[in-house]
Amino acid sequence: MKSRVVTKQRVADHGEVLTGQREVNAMLDLVQQETRRIESRFLEPACGNGNFLAEVLARKLTVVEDRYRRSQLEYERYSVLAVSSVYGIDILDDNVQECRDRLLGVFESPYVRLFKEGVKDKCLAAVRFILGRNVIWGDALTLKTVGPDPGPIVFSEWSSVNGSLLKRRDFSFRELLAQESYKEMPLFSDLGDEAFVPRPEKEYAPVHFLELADAQQQ
After folding, report:
1. pTM here?
2. Is residue 2 part of a domain?
3. What is the chain's alpha carbon radius of gyration, rounded to the nearest angstrom?
C-alpha cells in the first residue's frame, strides 16, 4: 500500500489519525478467535483507509486458504463471505474509495496467486459490489451518509443460503444501534444474530454469489 501522509488540516478538520500496523495487530490479537471466524462481522465506524479492516480480512482469508484452497469454488464462496463480513464508515470520500480499493486488493492477491488464469471476473465483480455496500461514505455520529444527497446510513447483511446462494437484507444503522445487545459490544466484534432483530428496510431474493453484481445493482 502506498504511504499515507495526514495533513495538519485533515487532523484539525476531521481528527484523522492513522493507526500503525503494530497497534492494529496488537488490538486484533485481543479478539484473535473472532478474526479467524469467517462469518464474524466487524464494523469500524471511522475506518479511514482501512488499516483495521484490511488486517481483519487478511486474517480471515488466511483461514479460507488453509481450509478450501484445493477447491476453487469453495475458496471463492468462503472468501466472498469473508469480504461480506467487514463493514466501515468514513466521513472522507477519498478514504472510502481507498479503503474499498485496498480491501479488493487484499482479496485479489491470494485469489490470483492460487488460481491464476482461473480467476473469474464475476467473483471480482461480486466483491466490488459488496464493498460498495459495506464501506460507506458517511458520518457515524449523525448516522447519515455524506455527499450531495445525504440520507440514513443503511448496511446490508449478507447470509449464506444453501451453499452458493447469498441473501441480502438492508438495515438502518440507526435501528441497529438501538439494539441494547449491539450498544454493549466493543468496537471490533461479531455483531451476531441479535444485532439484526429490527425489521429490514428491504430484502432481496437469494442469488448465486457469482451473479450478485448483475442481480442486485441497486
Report:
1. 0.83
2. no
3. 17
Please tell me the distance from the alpha carbon of residue 140 to that of residue 175, in angstroms, as a whole number. 13
The residue written with cell numbers 495526514 in the block is 6
Answer yes or no: are the C-beta atoms of 182 and 191 closer than 8 Å. yes
Q: If you count them, how many residues does the chain have?
A: 218
What b-and-e string marks burial along 17-44, b requiring 16 or more CB atoms within 10 Å of the CB?
eeeeeeebeeebeebeebbeebebbbbb
CB 196 within 8 A of CB 171: yes
Q: Please report, for residues 10, 31, 117, the alpha-carbon distance to residue 39 in angstroms, rounded to integers and kept in the order given.
A: 34, 14, 28
pLDDT digits over 50-70, tens only?
999 999 999 999 999 999 999
Structural domain boundaries enclosing 202? 8-215
Number of domains, the chain: 1
Q: Does residue 115 lie within any of the structural domains?
A: yes
Is residue 185 in a domain?
yes
Sign of the CA dihedral 88, 89, 95, 96?
Answer: positive
- Indicate if the pLDDT at residue 196 is higher than 60: no
H or E element in which residue 155 lies: strand 154-161
In a domain, 189, yes or no: yes
Instruction: Give the long-range contacts of residues 191-194, CB within 8 A, separation 24 or more.
Output: 191/41, 191/43, 192/41
Residues 136, 104: Cα–Cα separation, whole Å: 15
Which residue carries 478474526 as its cell?
35
